[in-house]
Specification:
single chain, 228 residues, alpha+beta, 7-stranded antiparallel sheet, 5 helices
């Protein structure tokens, strides 16, 4: 059975959306989480459960931070998302608009070789790929390859979309899938790739067993068939 994995628990997701006055379907929780997943999960819990009177506005709170491939610090803030205009930044926008629930997805994309490509507006663009692979007893082939893009700002404005930042970096503005159909939401299987889990097995009409997995890569997959 294909797993829709996430590094955040249902309780954390509900608490985050409730604290921001939003609503969304809570993601399913994988039966097993790796130690790194558990560590990040705990750090998110502490952010979401900060006292209501905490001096840092909830949108400015840092959910997680890490270094990209160039050793440049990347921060992910809770952020904000306005459904009516689809404007916002940070984790809330990534969750609500693009349906990426795994922090590991964001971290992996921003660790693309080279440390990101600087854009004309000063932001940095990182690219990775979620590749879906199907294998039979005799051969393997890729059925889909979805680019996953992260946009990061290293600027330090006083605020972003109404969220006071106190002179800190904006950080991750968004992470999204460059879907062929231009849909805002990523395919449900993308998080499985970046969380490092395999997917499913099934039988064809001829009785041949196929195994479907999702891989993460910094290169798009070739759809050519190869022997096992």
């Amino acid at each position: 059975m294909q797993l829709r994995n996430t590094v955040i628990s249902t309780a954390i997701a509900i608490a985050l959306f409730a604290g921001l006055g939003g609503s969304a379907a809570a993601p399913a929780v994988a039966p097993k989480l790796r130690s790194e997943v558990a560590r990040i999960d705990a750090s998110v819990t502490s952010v979401v459960r900060a006292p209501a009177g905490a001096s840092t506005p909830i949108g400015a709170r840092i959910v997680h931070q890490w270094n990209d491939a160039s050793k440049t610090r990347v921060v992910l803030r809770v952020g904000v998302y306005k459904r009516a205009t689809k404007a916002g930044f940070g984790w809330v926008k990534i969750l609500q608009k693009h349906r990426i629930y795994s922090l590991q997805t964001i971290v992996f994309v921003t660790r693309a070789p080279g440390g990101g490509v600087k854009q004309a507006n000063g932001n940095y663009r990182y690219t990775a790929y979620a590749n879906k692979k199907v294998c039979t007893k005799r051969s393997c082939y890729y059925t889909d390859s979805v680019p996953v893009i992260a946009i990061v700002s290293r600027s330090t404005p006083p605020s972003k979309h109404g969220v006071p930042l106190g002179g800190g970096r904006v950080g991750v503005i968004t992470t999204y899938c460059a879907n062929a159909n231009r849909a805002d939401a990523c395919p449900s299987w993308v998080d499985s790739a970046f969380a490092g889990f395999s997917t499913s097995s099934s039988s064809t009409d001829t009785g041949e067993v196929t195994e479907s997995t999702v891989e993460l890569s910094y290169k798009p997959a070739s759809k050519s068939r190869s022997n096992r």
